[in-house]
Amino acid sequence: MNARMSASRWPMVGRDEDMALFTRAWADRSCQGVVVCGPAGVGKTRLAEECLAHAVASGSKALRATASAAAATVPLGAIAHLLPADVDLSDPVRGFDQVAAALAGPRGHRWAVFIDDLHLLDATSAVLLRQLLDARVIRLIGTVRTGEPASDAVVALTGPEAVWRMDLGELSEEQTDQLLRQVLGGPTGHRTLKHLHTVSQGNVLYLRELVMGALRAGTLTRRGMVWELTMDLLTSTPKLTELIKARLLAGGPAALPILELLALCEPLPLADAQATVSLDVLTDLEGAGLIRVTTSRRRTTVQLAHPLYGEVLRAGIPSLRRRTLLQHQSERTLAHGARRRDDALHLATWQLTATGTAEPGLLSQAAALARHAHDYRQVVTLLEALPETHHTTATRLLLGEAHSSLHQFEEAETVLARACEAAENEAERVVTVRARALTLLLHGRTSEALSVNDWGKDHMGSTIGKKAIQANEGYIRCLTGEPVLGLGLLDAMADLEAAIDSEHILDVWLVSALCKSLAMAFTGRAADAAEFATKAYATHLRMDQKALFQHPSAQLHGLTVTLTETGELEQARTTGRDAISQAVAAGSPANYLWASFFTCRTEFIAGHLSEARDLCAEAASEAHSQNVAFATRLMDSVLAATHAQMGDIETAEAIVAESLAHPMSGLFRGEERLGEAWLHAARGDLAAARSVLTEAASSARQGGHVTSEALLLTDVARLGGAGEVTERLAELAGTCDGALGQARAHLAAALAADDPDRLFAAAEELEALGADLLAAEAATAAATAWLRTGETRRAANATTRATICARRCPGARTPLLAAAETTAPLTTREREIALLAAGGASSNDIAAALHLSPRTVSNHLQRAYGKLGVTNRRDLADILRRTVGDLHAHVE
């Protein structure tokens, strides 16, 4: 089903709990009905319709009506069609008796009456419905928009003593994610999800219209597996525009001037808002929920209450009026002295929007402010308006960095090449060489990046300048497969740190710090890497207002990798997710891409394949669409490997074939062949898979990537080659920090020996680290080995542990898991008795409850013990507690 079709009827994501509460309330015969309350667009009617369907399925017959302001002017106008035609309501008492008698059916029969927009119901209709409720002739299902006035009769009808109230709010970001997955048929990128949720503010109706508009306009498209917005572009729909216009009309004609001004210039100081309209108008707008007034310290500002209000208002402002409004606001700001830090940015933006130009000095100042707010698109807009004759090395560097941060590499290279040529002193040459080399590297032009750096060597006279260029080469070597050589060159950072307050040194140190923490992790120095990455992050946060190099969250990339290699997988996952959130909030595509990939790799090592797949699909999608040639092949490789380990051979084949068009980068050297190897394994050719992995591990070893070598050799062991790699993995475990290397070595040795005791111990060790897939495989291998020796109880215990671990790796279909020889499942009766026993019931109590003899209960319990690999009730309770939600795996 395509997205356009599936979007025609949106599911009730996030409303399952509400429906469960309604089901219980409806089953309670003392409940006379339910009223679904909430603001416009949160899905009240949709949920109420589901409630009505449940009522009908429970035996009620349905009647439905919609109240409206027009119908409210006529008594019984909204529900007249529900009443018997021959009833005379001129006598209310007699008329009510006739309506009740006509609606009454067979004994126990009830009507479910659904009234949409109950708050608009006329008083006569409300009184009649209340009487029918009290007489238990009907049960009511209705919707009420919060904040809307209602008559006393309607209030009485919907009071808590009469019906149960269900209050709905906006969707959370998690619920928005679930909804979009169902509607679009696939994951939405973190950045797109954040943007859609922020703009819609969780309003289901607004969200639906935004998504439908973006689909029709082609700005929401599927890149590979992931749905992404093009440059955060959202297109409204006529229905959404109409809804918002109707909402804005509640402010009245007197409010239009301030609403238009806010749409162009928000947030506004309260004094400027009062210069446009009276305080009474502002008070009414705040009360109507159209504006939001915020006080921070001594400053009070006014802004629109919803992002979409501004979009609709801006679309309706004629160009001359727009120009007039912006010029007047510029004059007001200048009259106040333009003293606030962000006034220059506002003035430049307003002048540029109004006239297409602005004073050059103001544009440069505003661009610097936009950069330090990490608004790279705004930087580009401002500096592309700067006349060429007013550009300096500093402005070209700022513009080039912004283009690079947006992955606009060709534009960045053009600007930065010009900046290099125009550099007038050593400090300018240092910063331009650093920026240009990194841009070329990310564009996949490594040799050119090194050539630019060599040019820098030839143009440095001071010691500090030469050290900066040395560090620059160091980070290039670290990222391109030579971490040992790179770390040696990065020793120059110690000298740079003393001059870190100099802006031309600061950015060299920051990018070198990120790469140094990565390289230390690559070479097995994870403990040192964690300490250094933490220091680099703190330094980047402290110096962010002076730095040009990306966002401080970039330093979290090194920490994510480091924590993964030490075996602190949960902390690595948390750090990676934090980096993603920070990158999305900062609007930094570069950080977003790399945070997604490094977190994906953590999930891949943990064996959480669905999470790894979605994150890697986001990173690969961004890399392909933005032509980030560096490491695209690596991302494709990991993505293909996740699909192969989940048994999706067709998709893995397509990704591997596409990846061959991209060069190997050297980042995580050797791991560029993971996809190829696991594709062979998924096809059943384990020998070919081991051969690819062995070659890849040899490449990693040559480059000094000991952690990548350990990962690749562990996969050789998982695919039947444990005896070939055990010795080398033991050597690597002795040279690498952290528990993950040790656990991998123990797993390989246990697989080589086919020793169930050692395999089970390895499973426990790996599970404690969070490496759930490896733990599941080790436990499965232990169970298989014990079954061969007839130790069924221990085999059952291992199988249970494998089940627990594998549950955290849904979809995994690796050879070791597929080779499992499982023990017999629990029967329904055994499961029932086991649950009661685990809950503390004695055998006699269970026998009485199930009408069995105590002996029969004891026999069933002993068989359950044997199948689950336990010997007493305490262990039984522990096993069942850990397998909550997956007990069906043990039931026939």
Helix content: 55-70%
**Per DSSP, what share of the residues sits in E-state strands of 2 or more residues?**
5-15%
Instruction: Tell me the major beta sheet.
Output: 5 strands, parallel
Mean pLDDT: 88
Radius of gyration (Å): 33 Å
The class by helix and strand makeup works out as mainly alpha
Question: Which key phrases capture this entry?
Answer:
single chain; 892 residues; mainly alpha; five-stranded parallel sheet; three-stranded antiparallel sheet; disordered N terminus; disordered C terminus
Give an account of the 3D structure:
The chain is mainly α. It has 45 helices and ten strands. A five-stranded parallel beta sheet has the order 2-3-4-1-5, sandwiched between helices. A three-stranded antiparallel beta sheet has the order 8-10-9. Helix 23 runs parallel beside helix 26.
How are the secondary structure elements laid out?
Elements: H1 3-6, H2 16-27, E1 33-38, H3 44-57, E2 61-66, H4 92-103, E3 111-116, H5 123-134, E4 138-145, H6 152-157, E5 164-167, H7 173-184, H8 190-200, H9 204-217, E6 220-223, E7 226-229, H10 238-248, H11 256-265, E8 268-269, H12 270-274, H13 279-287, E9 291-296, E10 299-304, H14 307-315, H15 319-335, H16 343-355, H17 360-372, H18 376-384, H19 393-405, H20 409-422, H21 426-442, H22 446-458, H23 463-479, H24 483-489, H25 493-497, H26 503-522, H27 526-543, H28 555-565, H29 569-586, H30 589-606, H31 609-625, H32 632-645, H33 649-659, H34 674-683, H35 686-703, H36 706-735, H37 739-753, H38 756-769, H39 772-788, H40 792-807, H41 815-818, H42 828-838, H43 843-850, H44 854-868, H45 873-882
